[in-house]
Amino acid sequence: MHVALDRCSALVLNADFRPLSYFPLSLWSWRESIKAVFLDRVNVLAEYDIAIHSPNFEMPLPSVIALKEYVPPAKRAAFTRFNVFLRDRFDCQYCGDRFPPQDLTFDHVIPRSKGGRTTWENVVTSCSSCNLTKGNKMPAVVGMIPLHTPAEPSVHQLQAHGRGFPPNFLHESWRDYLYWDSELDAE
């Protein structure tokens, strides 16, 4: 069975064996992971059932790697469009429907034309339809109050939200290192 190397990403864990990020999941390409192994920057915790070859060398592809040096998490969440969506769990804050990221935009609760700023406290996730309906009007005027009051999330909150959205592909070797919300079997 031939597996495309592009589909052999390695799950990257911090030195404390937690993923560097959950959403998007911290993954490195097979090339990046091999390079990190050769530079002795990571420990290999699990491998794929396939190997890379050169004339004088063979090495199983890493599927889970852990950094040898701990990378402290950011103290504050980066203010990005994607993190606004993640904070709001990909739900339009006006109609309440969930959308894929590519179908979302963000809305200034107090429009910029009325002095609103681009901050955590004034930006919410919006679908295109609601954003168009609200336009540059004040929320009370158009009767569109956000479902949740926008606020700056902590890094911990964003990580917790990210765990609720597992990626489309999870290699079986990754499961022991990801903390998705699932019940453990009682013995």
How many beta-strand elements? 6
Computed CA radius of gyration, to the nearest angstrom? 21 Å
The side-by-side strand order for the widest beta sheet comes to: 2-1-4-3
Low-pLDDT stretches are: none
CATH class of the largest domain: Mainly Alpha
* pLDDT averaged residue by residue: 89
Secondary structural class: alpha+beta
Biggest sheet details? 4 strands, mixed
Overall domain count: 2
Structure annotation, total helices:
5
User: Which CATH architecture of the largest domain?
Assistant: Orthogonal Bundle
CATH domain fold name of the largest domain: DNA Binding (I), subunit A
Helix-strand sequence: EEHEEHEEHHH
Strand content: 15-25%
- Sum up the overall morphology in one term: elongated
Residues in helices, as a percent range: 10-25%
Distance between the termini: 37 Å
Description of the structure:
By secondary structure, the protein is of the alpha+beta class. The protein has helices spanning 30-38, 81-87, 128-134, 139-142, 155-163; strands at residues 10-13, 27-28, 42-54, 57-67, 104-108, 123-127. β3 and β4 form a beta hairpin. The protein is elongated, with a radius of gyration of 21 Å. The relative contact order is 0.16. It is built from five helices and six strands, in the order ββαββαββααα.
